[in-house]
User: Which sequence fits this backbone?
């Protein structure tokens, strides 16, 4: 018996117990069956008679049951008949036991339940009762002399037909109940199917909504990142603007004494030449060093002013291939001078892009300059250009020393330079120009392997 069956049997037994306990219903039933105290008294008087015939009767009952294939197959379990004979005899004796109250009712209801469990058809069960009734009558007839045979035969005939009718009535009850249960089962199955379908739809909807939400989360994260980038950019721009204003003034002030120092140096050199002193060579060397330093200072101030001055871009429709050719003609001499091999690959075809050519030239030259400085004689520099999905991509890669990982995060910071003669402004200027075009500049590098700079610009 599985869990749900055992729960079901417990419920059935509890229901039978309640039925047996209900005194009012018990009495109502007994009254309807004409079962009063007189009948109970009469039955009790018959107890010795029952004792006398019990063995024979039970023997006869099982002989009868076993002679019919249908009911016999319910008794095929080994040892069952012996056990049932004993139980059956006890049962029979309680018919005249004198107690017809709660315990009696309960034991009868339980017997019915046991047969229901073994699924004994009601007809066999009632047939056995009929057999009892007729054989008790038989025994009574033998015992009571003077009963007219006619009377006993008529009673037996009535008993048989009444039991037959009871069995048919029970069949009608059971069949109706079964078909009702079957109908309810079908309805239940349909409801379950609908529920199943509904739950599947619900599952699908939940999955769809989850997917939508996940997409929204990704969009929001993206938007958040953009806001963060914009905020960073704003802070950067504000900081740069402040530095720019300060530094532009300073640079302007530095430039005047610088120019005047350069002029004074020229005059000094001329005077040295006129004086034709013995130390002329040495003096010229010193002057040369001072001039180189002054030039460097001048260069630094110029790039700084370029960077600091708030500038605007003026974009024009430009044939990309022409723009790139311009760059190549500028860088080719520098590359060859340094013994570097140049690979140039332009896939832009006849595409156009809106560019501030001068500023973009400057930006790319800054990147190429870095590449040349990082690459030894015999190294390689590649310039790849393409236009796809309205995006112009310029890729500059070198086989130079590369940038150590810890430096990569700082390469766009102003005045951050690892080169002795670097201004620390080349990359920030390049990045600013690219940003002004609405594009991006990414740098990937592997130390001692090389560096790749990728500029991506919208063509419109
Ligand atoms: C006058 C009619 C019958 C009476 C009074 C009767 C009485 C009983 C009683 C008292 C039990 C023991 C129930 C329990 O303690 O749970 C029982 C069990 C049983 N009866 Fe009957 N019986 C009748 C008819 C039949 C018939 C006609 C058959 C088969 C054709 C049958 C087959 C069984 C079987 C198989 C069990 C064993 C149930 C189990 O596995 O516990 N009975 N019966």
Assistant:
């Amino acid at each position: 018996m599985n869990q749900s069956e055992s729960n079901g049997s417990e419920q059935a037994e509890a229901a039978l117990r309640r039925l047996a306990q209900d005194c009012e219903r018990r009495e109502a039933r007994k009254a309807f069956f004409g079962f009063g105290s007189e009948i109970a008294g009469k039955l009790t008087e018959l107890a010795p008679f029952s004792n006398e015939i019990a063995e024979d009767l039970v023997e006869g009952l099982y002989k009868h049951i076993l002679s019919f294939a249908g009911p016999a197959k319910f008794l095929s379990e080994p040892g069952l008949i012996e056990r049932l004979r004993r139980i059956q005899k006890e049962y029979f004796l309680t018919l005249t036991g004198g107690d017809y109250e709660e315990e009696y009712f309960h034991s009868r209801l339980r017997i019915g339940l046991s047969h229901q469990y073994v699924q004994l058809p009601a007809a066999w069960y009632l047939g056995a009762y009929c057999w009892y009734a007729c054989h008790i009558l038989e025994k009574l007839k033998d015992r009571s002399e003077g009963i007219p045979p006619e009377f006993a035969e008529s009673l037996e005939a009535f008993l048989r037909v009444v039991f037959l009718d009871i069995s048919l009535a029970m069949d009608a009850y059971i069949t109706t109940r079964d078909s009702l249960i079957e109908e309810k089962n079908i309805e239940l199955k349909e409801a379950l199917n609908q529920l199943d379908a509904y739950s599947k739809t619900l599952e699908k909807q939940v999955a769809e909504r989850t997917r939508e939400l996940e997409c929204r989360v990704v969009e929001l994260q993206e938007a958040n990142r953009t806001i963060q980038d914009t905020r960073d950019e704003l802070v950067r721009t504000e900081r740069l603007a402040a530095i720019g204003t300060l530094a532009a003034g300073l640079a302007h002030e530095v430039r005047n004494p610088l120019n005047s120092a350069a002029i004074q140096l020229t005059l000094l050199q001329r005077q040295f030449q006129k004086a034709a002193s013995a130390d002329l060579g040495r003096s010229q060397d010193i002057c040369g060093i001072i001039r180189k330093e002054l030039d460097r200072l001048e260069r630094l101030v110029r790039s700084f002013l370029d960077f600091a001055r708030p500038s605007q871009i003026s974009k024009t429709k430009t044939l990309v291939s022409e723009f790139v050719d311009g760059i190549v003609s500028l860088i080719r001499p520098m590359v060859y001078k340094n013994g570097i091999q140049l690979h140039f690959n332009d896939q832009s075809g006849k595409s156009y892009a809106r560019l501030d050519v001068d500023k973009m030239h400057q930006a790319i030259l800054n990147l190429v300059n870095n590449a040349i400085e990082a690459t030894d004689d015999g190294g390689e520099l590649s310039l790849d250009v393409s236009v796809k999905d309205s995006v112009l991509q310029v890729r500059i890669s070198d086989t130079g020393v590369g940038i150590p990982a810890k430096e990569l995060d700082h390469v766009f910071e102003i005045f951050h330079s690892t080169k002795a003669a670097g201004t620390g402004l080349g990359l920030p200027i390049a990045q600013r120009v690219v940003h002004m075009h609405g594009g991006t500049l990414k740098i990937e590098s592997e130390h001692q392997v090389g560096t790749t700079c990728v500029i991506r610009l919208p063509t419109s």
